[in-house]
Specification:
By secondary structure, the protein is an all-beta fold. It contains no helices and eleven strands. The strands form two sheets. Strands 2, 4, 5, 6, 9, 10 and 11 form a seven-stranded mixed sheet that branches. The chain has a four-stranded antiparallel sheet with strand order 1-3-8-7, with no helix packed on it.
């Protein structure tokens, strides 16, 4: 089982990035998928998630209206579209999958996810 994130980079404030998360070695469908981030010196925090069966997403207050999570199970891929980026969005971004349990509702609790990617760096700076 492998989760691989990509799409990170450096953008100026107000810019956009689209992160991808590809799962291999396991069935992507019916897995809750979450995006999390960790900035230097700070704890990991939730960004966005979708429940096991797809459907309504949940977002951290800090990214609502700016970030959009999506997924296409046939491609074993999830995305995080990030618009209107701010310097405080700078962090390593991780995608995670809930493998052992099924979540009917989106969960932003990192403890509910049991498989993680290696992360991709996002830097927002002038």
């Amino acid at each position: 089982l492998q989760l691989v994130e990509s799409g990170g980079g450096t953008v100026p404030p107000g810019g956009s990035l689209r992160l991808s998360c590809v799962m291999s070695g396991f069935t992507f469908s019916n897995r809750a998928i979450g995006w999390f981030r960790q900035a230097p010196g700070k704890e990991r925090e939730a960004v966005a998630c979708t429940p096991s069966g797809g459907g309504s997403a949940a977002y951290a207050d800090s990214v609502k209206g700016r970030f959009t999570i999506s997924r296409e199970d046939a491609k074993n891929t999830a995305w995080l579209q990030m618009d209107s980026l701010k310097p405080e969005d700078t962090a390593v971004y991780f995608c995670a999958a809930a493998i052992r349990r099924w979540f009917a509702m989106p969960t932003l609790d990192s403890g509910d996810y049991d498989f993680w990617g290696q992360g991709t760096q996002v830097t927002v700076a002038s």
